[in-house]
Amino acid sequence: MPDKIEQxxxxxxxxxxCHYCENDFESVIDTFVPEMSWFGAGENQYLLGAExxxxxxxxxxxEIPPCRISGEExxxxxxxxxxxxCSGRLWVSTDLSIKQLVRVHQRLxxxxxxxxxxxxxxxxxxxxxxxxxxEDEVFPEKIGQQSYEYVKETIEQLQEEMKNxxxxxxxxxxxxxxxxxxxRDDESYSYTYVSExxxxxxxxxxxxxxxxxKGSAVGAxxxxxxxxxxxxLPKDFAVxxxxxxxxxxxxxxGSVKWILDRGRKTVDAQGETVINSLYxxxxxxxxxxxxxxxxxxxxxxxxxxVPCGILRLKCQDGVYQLISMNPAAGTLxxxxxxxxxEWTSGIPDTVLSEDRSLFTKSYNGLKETGDHNEIDYRVxxxxxxxxILHGSNHLISFDGKAEVFQCIFVDITESKALQxxxxxxxxxNAAKSEFLSQMSHDMRTxxxxxxxxxxxxxxSEDLTEIKDYLAKMQLSSQLLLNLIxxxxxxxxxxxxxxxxxxxxxxxxxxxxxxxxxxxxxCEEKKIHYxxxxxxxxxxxxxxxxxxxxxxxxxxxxxxVKFTPDGGEIELSLNVVRDTxxxxxxxxVVKDTGIxxxxxxxxxxxxxxxxxxxxxxGQIEGTGLGLAIxxxxxxxxxxxxxxxxxxxxxxIFSVELTFEKCIPVIVEKNPAVNQSLAGKRILLCEDNEIxxxxxxxxxxxxxxxxxxxxxxxxxxxxxxxxxxxxxxAILMDIRMPEMDGLAATRRIRFMGRKDAQTIPIIAMTAxxxxxxxxxxxxxxxxxxxAKPIQPEELYRTLSEVL
Length: 801
Fold this sequence. Notes:
Layout: H1 2-20, H2 25-29, E1 32-39, E2 46-48, H3 50-59, E3 67-80, E4 83-94, E5 103-114, E6 119-127, H4 141-164, H5 166-173, E7 179-184, E8 191-194, H6 196-201, H7 206-212, H8 217-220, H9 226-239, E9 242-250, E10 256-267, E11 273-281, H10 283-305, E12 309-316, E13 319-325, H11 327-333, H12 356-364, E14 372-380, E15 386-398, E16 402-411, H13 413-459, H14 463-494, E17 503-505, H15 507-525, E18 528-533, E19 540-543, H16 545-562, E20 568-578, E21 582-591, H17 598-601, E22 612-613, E23 617-618, H18 625-635, E24 639-645, E25 649-661, E26 680-684, H19 688-699, E27 704-708, H20 711-720, E28 728-731, H21 740-748, H22 754-757, E29 760-764, H23 769-778, E30 782-785, H24 790-800
Parallel strand pairs: 1-6, 18-20, 26-27, 26-28, 28-29, 29-30
Antiparallel strand pairs: 1-2, 3-4, 4-5, 5-6, 7-8, 7-11, 9-10, 10-11, 12-13, 12-16, 14-15, 15-16, 17-19, 19-25, 20-21, 21-25, 22-23, 24-25
Helix pairs in contact: 4-5, 13-14, 14-18, 15-16, 16-18, 20-21
């Protein structure tokens, strides 16, 4: 039975340790059977019977000094049913704390009776290989005392000899492994003796070491350490004759060793004060200590400066106590200075009440040492701000009564916001991708019509048919331009560069415009429409009528688009507040259309979003109309609200506040200024077709046009012209050789007078806000986006000329 044999060996070892090391003789006696027998190491140590042996063992109390056991070896075998013989060999040494020097080799034999409840001792036989024990000693203490006295006497004799016979020191120290030196008590502590071992520590012979150090202990000290050593030595000697200094010594190979220089100041037989010392190489120990200190300092620095919170809690009987907390923990938890006072629940007071149960579940889920789990929770700081923390809770120790938890946590408020922003960006990108896909279709549709009608017109010889083709091409071109304008409006709103032009606008003018806009759309689908406004609305208000009309036509267009044939649409204008200076109105568009799902209603005003519903397919459009509408309403200082239900229609409400004003009668369809005849224009355009179109449009007004194929050519033509030869310059932006921006700068910096005053108009497809800004910074007066509308071009020229 190997298990029983192993238990027998362990019991033999336990008895020996109780006997020699712990002086616990009762634990030994407790194993005796009544018919016990014992042979001790002493001459007369033999007894039979448990009671006699127990009496003898109790006399050992205080007689056997504290000992150490080493080199234990045990063998055991079964000699009968549950009866075992165990023999052992071990060394017993007196503890260094007592004045005895004993180390004996102990041999012993046990006979054990094994039972399931206990292992009983039936026989002990102890013996020593020599007769160290005298007479009836229970321990060889007399031999130990004699050895101690002998060693003490020998040491005293050696000390006396060292004092009286200095030459004998050389004989002794030469045989000692280490580095021994002797010095005079002078300014440089000049050597009287250096052992070969001391010199060898640094790679030198004795003669080489003497030469390098100039024969002094001061000369051996590393220069950087010398001031410290020379300062501390007098302090050591002021206390007593002994000293100890750590410093570095440069070796023969150029390396540096740390040594411990320890010694004593004495007076020799000649009455001269000398210092006997020992050089000890402590390089490894010193380096390890430095690494330990650096590591401890690093860990302490990390603990104090790490941006994550770290705290430890002890839990006993359900009550928590804070053990430690780093500075970041208090900051992240938003705790005050007295945060160390109350931790009985294990949950910081700043944790939101609805999240506190997360801690309880986390702690309860940690059952064994090493278990950990993670939680996200919220805390409220003293300033009222709310922060999200991500924590990792660990059970780091458990002794059956108390648990120690370690909580590590970081602030993820910003990263959570970034994740939300990232998710929103992903959704936005997905919407943009869908938008671009649809825009590709929507733009290619009118473009396909333009190209197809153009091909038909070129083949036809019937003038009436050609005009019909051209008219349809004009409609497709306008549709394509509207799509592009939607994109541009979105960009202006997002970059806050939309410019508003305020002017008087009356309710009558507004309803008349809406009537003209809505009638043909509704007649086509046989939709019944109503336009209604309250009576007594003030005569006029100040607003950007173009943008207000755009808001309402967008809403009405959607109403028509999503209302089936025969449905109903209503536009109403209501007064919400009417003060002396301001008027707040509510514009309501109501339809009986297909409505919207609750899910889509949450995203309806996001750019590029469009709803696809079963039975309706993909709804046509850019997905920008309502995003633009909402942006325009916000720019005008108003609010937009939407109600909708599937198959029951939608209600769009716009509330705006206007400043009252006096109405101005505006002449309808004012004629364009006809004074452009005879004006001379320098046209800088690299595209030949565009140049031809622009030239024809200008020539319709009898304007003279000179064409430059790029910016560089335009600069040269202006430079070579006479003063005030050109009345204005139409400048494309993107051109070879030199772009329009660079060309404008070159012209503006010319020395001639008209270079500063001549109007320069950007005429380009670059239609975004940044393009307008760059044009203005380059020195251009205004900006026209392609495709150029003739009336807009004539109006702009009239304004700048």
